[in-house]
Amino acid sequence: MKAFQIQNLFRIGAVATALALGGVAAHAGGPGGPGGPGHHRGGPTLMAPGPFGGHMGHMLELVNATDAQRSQIKAIFKQAGQDLAGQRDNGRKLNEQLAMLYTATNIDAAAIESVRAQIAAQHETASKRMSQASIEAARVLTPEQRAKIGETMKKREARMAERRSR
Questions:
Q1: Rounded distance, CA 130 to CA 159, Å?
Q2: Is 38 helix (H, G, I), strand (E, B) or coil?
Q3: Residue-wise pLDDT tens for the chain (166 aa)?
Q4: What is the DSSP letter of 39?
Q5: Stretch (H or E) spanning 3
Q6: Would you give the DSSP letter of residue 55?
Q7: Which residues cross the membrane (predicted)?
């Protein structure tokens, strides 16, 4: 193989590895961990998928959540993060495998596909667990609080759509 082709394969492998590592870290890192998802502006904030958007702490302030609600929601996402903590090491190992496969002398497409499928399954597990936590958290809030969050998310999406159209 020509040197140019080898360099391109290496670049593709590096990009694929970075994307996979970023996805696993985002899902398996757990909410609010230092330096991970939720670490923002000098301190951890709660992160959640679903109707709450990114920064749960900000949303809870917006809807004037009570201390009891905040405590319950924090516990819900803390538990979800703990449930997913075991995926971190496995995710790192899978990404190391993927990097080795892409940098090997011979590219083994079947092995790469196998690792990709394992990473995708891990992402699905993390996504499902975080979705469950988000549902639990939504049940802690009143219908009015959830409606206010929904309105805020619609406004945010409209602003983003306007920026994209420029």
A1: 26
A2: coil
A3: 444 444 444 444 444 333 333 333 333 343 333 333 433 333 333 444 444 445 678 889 989 999 999 999 999 999 999 999 988 889 999 999 999 999 999 999 999 999 999 999 999 999 999 999 999 999 999 999 999 998 988 999 999 999 999 8
A4: E
A5: helix 3-28
A6: B
A7: none
Strand, helix or coil at 142? coil
User: CA 102, 104, 108, 112 torsion: positive or negative?
Assistant: negative
Q: Quick one: tokens of 143?
A: 């219908």
What is the C-alpha separation between 150 and 104, in angstroms, rounded? 48
DSSP 50: G
pTM given for the model? 0.62
In the chain, which ranges are E strands? 39-40, 43-44
Q: How far apart are CA 23 and CA 122, in angstroms?
A: 10
